[in-house]
Amino acid sequence: MGFFDLLEKHEPCPYVVESFLRVPEGNFLAFMDSGSLHDRLESHKKRTDDRKRIVEITAKEPAHLVQRWLVELCAAAFWLESLGYVHGDLRPPNLPLDSQEHLKLADFGCVAPIGTPAETTTTPWIRLLGPDAGEHKGTFGLCGAQTEQFAIGSILYCLTRGHEPYETDELEDITEPLWLFQRMEFPALSNDSFDSIIEKCWRGHFLSLKEFHEETKSLWCGDGLLRASVSETYDLADIRNECQRLVDNELLVFP
Question: Is the peptide bond before 92 cis (omega within 30 degrees of 0)?
């Protein structure tokens, strides 16, 4: 909960899950009632009976929603960058959706200052660096624009394909994607605008998340995708007061 204390010192970001009140027993977070990107992706996968293999992608998310989610995710990542941090665990389960299908960034358990060594999450949300990284070869590099944009590129790939990179391929070794990414052997991409972004992310094109944010805004914000503020959705003061009332009246039972 400590990171939420830091966030509260700044103007709220519309694309980060709100913490209304923090007490020793828990953290009152905004209710996200449309599941997560992970839930949406899984709902479109038809698997074998043992759940180990995908046999069909039954549907894909419409382009206008993918555009919105990418813009919102980049805005959230840039906001954290402006505070000197990275999320450190960008992947579909940590990206819940509200009742209007707007994306929010959640789960700050891996947040880290920019410039510190990146911790291992899992492929394809981070890349084990190869010879191109010089002295950082064999590591996951330093937290910053490179690590975050790589994860965002993989998230966008999932949204446009319905599955993770290499997830539908017949691979002899489940660790093979780790080594393929290290050698910068990426899945085939097209020339459309989404795939152009994916390739830029995987190859570390953006020098900052601000630059990445500005590019996505220039591509798609003419459609009015971005919210102006948190207050468009919540009356924060009223909700905080209600949370405090529940605590004061001992109406909550914590495990």
Answer: no
The model's pTM is 0.90
Strand ranges (E), 87-237: 112-113
Q: Which two tokens stand for residue 56?
A: 């069909």
CB-based burial of residue 79 (10 Å sphere; 0-12 exposed, 13-18 middle, 19+ buried)?
buried
Total residue length of the chain: 255
Cα atoms found within 13 Å of the Cα of residue 152, Cβ hemisphere only: 34
Q: What is the pLDDT of residue 234?
A: 61
pLDDT at position 53 is: 87
CA 209, CA 105: separation in Å to the nearest integer?
15
Beta strands in the chain (DSSP E): 19-23, 26-29, 45-47, 54-57, 85-86, 112-113
Token pair listed for 89: 């665990």
Yes or no: say if 94 and 151 are a contact pair by the CB < 8 Å rule.
Answer: no
2-248 folds as Transferase(Phosphotransferase); domain 1 (1.10.510)
Structure tokens, 240? 């905080």
Task: Please state the rounded mean pLDDT for residues 170-176.
Answer: 81
- In the chain, what are the domain boundaries? 2-248
Taking alpha carbons only, the member of 14, 10, 11, 9 closest to residue 229 is 14
Cβ contacts of 23 within 8 Å, gap of 6 or more: 247
Q: How many CB atoms lie within 10 A of CB 111?
A: 18
Averaged pLDDT, 155-176: 90
